[in-house]
Amino acid sequence: MGQTLRPSTLVPRGFVVDDAASGADATLITVRPLSIASACPGCGTRSVRIHSRYPRRLADLPMAGKPVLLVVMVRRFHCDAVLCGRRIFAERFDGDVLAPWARRTARLDDIVHHLGLVLGGRPAASFAQRLMLPVSNDTLLRVVRRRGSPRFVPPTIIGIDDWAWRRNQRYGTIICDLERRKTIALLPDREPATAQAWLSDQPQISIVARDRGGGYAMAAAKALPKATQVADRWHLMENASRAFVDAVRKSMRQIRTAIGATTINLDLLTAAERIQYEGYLHREDTNAAILGLAKAGVTIKEIVRRTGYSRGLVRRVLRGQRSDVFRVRESSLELYLPWLDAQWSAGQRNGAELWRRLAVQGFRGSLRVVTEWTTRRRKAEKVDGAALSRAPSARTVARLMTIGRDNLSKSETVIVAAIEGGVPQLVDAREIIAAFQAMIRKKSLVDLEPWLEQARSGLVAPFANGVVKDRAAVSAAITSPWSNGQTEGQITKLKLVKRQMYGRGKLDLLQARVIGAA
Q: Which of 121, 198, 110 is nearest to 160 (CA)?
């Protein structure tokens, strides 16, 4: 047999329905509590002596597509305790039913809280209107802030990394429990002292996964000297790739000599390339001035003071990382160059016609891109065949030297072969970086010491020296199953929440939404 639906089952626990009326805008239900006594909030003494009654209006869950208003006939009681300062008090209800001074029932407040966690202010308010829950965006955020973030279980394995309040200007710190796969804390900055203070309150932590920056390493070493630090494997791979790009930048003069591009033919340059070439000449003057001071034994600090250039620029010059002529971006024609070469060889020289044919194939670029390409090809055929070609950028050279030979075009294969023959130390650097990345992928710790001996004397020696300084964390990254990749994923979730609020959410609101939703 089916159970009979009673009116009391539609209202919160502990109340009985006295009356109900359905209007055009809302359903009004009058209820009274079932209990015969209530505890004094001051002393805790239970009282049954009623002083008076008054109606209390509450919002409850909607019903049949209409908002519901509960009218609760609340009683006032006498407190008979001699030592209690209260003479009369209003009765209290269970916290999971109705909080003191609340204008919503606890079950409705839970829904409002979850809407605020997931959607934020205005989106949640708009959605709540569709659910027949009239609540403002300020109320939603106020509920989220009031409840805050739940207490976390003390972690033993954590990941720590920085995240951007505003890129290149202001950063915070995120801390994740890697075992439970959740964020447990957000810190207002990424200063080592702030991270150290938080870590000092968690002495049970045994493993700290972090990035390659020295700030968090120093904080963890001071706060948790017995904890194992694990360098992030992705950052190790990325640092290795960047080290090879830096090695290519240092070798750009030799590369240009190897591929026959020690001089620039101005007749082949577009207007944009002329501007870049003039900037290169200006950079060469700057580089010569800085290198001249360095050869004279002047310190970096003194070079910065004399020239007015930044410390970072001076370091890049001394490392040979400012010798690129052109800063080349990948062209939108890259995928269509074989087809264009074939059309050019077949005698089709009209740029507008080539562009129309490319558009049929799905090319989304403008007519100007194609006409500039045809103009450059036409000029190249008119100049002397002995004219020297233009060298690709350092990043392009690094890409060509590290991808599979099967993916290279004929011209790219010729360039790579010329570089490998003319700059053998760059080939050695490529092999060293490839060996390091293979060691990380295979988690082969026994290869670390031989690799360090080989890498310290080549173009990637600065990278090898960095590995030596952080050797314990790098060794742990090779052998440990933990890494900071999960923390990077939590940062992505944090960015989504931050952008939902147009970047205006303060730390307490961000923490409540990110940690509370987890």
A: 198
